[in-house]
Each structure stands twice: as structure tokens, then as C-alpha cells.
Design a protein that fits this description.
Number of helices: 9
Shape: elongated
Number of strands: 0
Structural class: mainly alpha
Order of helices and strands: HHHHHHHHH
Helix content: over 70%
Largest sheet: none
Amino acid sequence: MKQRAGDYFRRAYEHQQKGEYEEAIELYSHSIEAFPTAEAYTFRGWAHSFQNNYTQAIADCRRAIKVDPDFGNPYNDIGAYLIEQGQWDAAIPWLTKALTAPRYESYFFPYFNLGRVYEHRREWTKAGEHYRRALQLNGQYLLAYQGMKRLQAMWN
């Protein structure tokens, strides 16, 4: 069952990369039925987010956390989806949890998203600190670089 789940997951991801979100969601669901993983729930949520279905995306991320509370992606993703819904302050605890998640490879994402929140709140110093930290972790992350440039333009 685990292998079947992995096969569905890989196929779902391929469809998602092509922008075929309905197909991806269906295949992620098959993966979850075969063997539920935090990754499958999180990625299905991500596919829902591309359809602007943030309610379902957040619900899938919450399911992912129940399966594996150490997996960092769903915490960051919930924060990002709340930002997209204009719930800036509600995003902070989720993004903060992503920063402390033991199993996460992309800590620059929650740092960047916290930078966005603090920029929105006009807390320029905090925004700059978070954008800077994102760039320290991934010097190629263009969105964090653009955030720093916006702040620098305001300071000059």
C-alpha cells in the first residue's frame, strides 16, 4: 500500500506541475486512501490553494499536522494561506511553528512570510530581519531579495 501511495503521489505531483490541479487533487486523494502521509495532505492542500480554495487547503494542512506534527511544511502553508486571506496576524503563530519544526528543509519560507507580515504591519525592522534571515538561508530566493529592496527604498 505504501508503494501504491508513493506512485499516486508522484503522478499527482507531475499533474500539479503542469497546472492540472483537479487531476492532482484526485491522485493525492488516492495516495491518502492507500497510505496517509503528511506530505500527501500538504501537497493536496497546495493544489487546492492554486484554485484559491484556502479553506480546503488549510483543512488538509491541519490533517497533515495530525499525521506528523514534526513536518514543517503545513505550518508554513497555513500561515501563507491566512496571509492570502488577509488574516495577517493569525498567520504569525503558524509561521513561528514552522521555524521550530524538526522536519523541514525550507526554513527560508516562513522567514520570508513573517517578513511579509511585518512589512504589512509597518514593522520595518522586524520585516528586514526576517527577509535577511530568509536570504541567509537561501541567497537565491528572489522574493526575499525584493522584500529587502522595497524596505531599502523606503529607508533611503
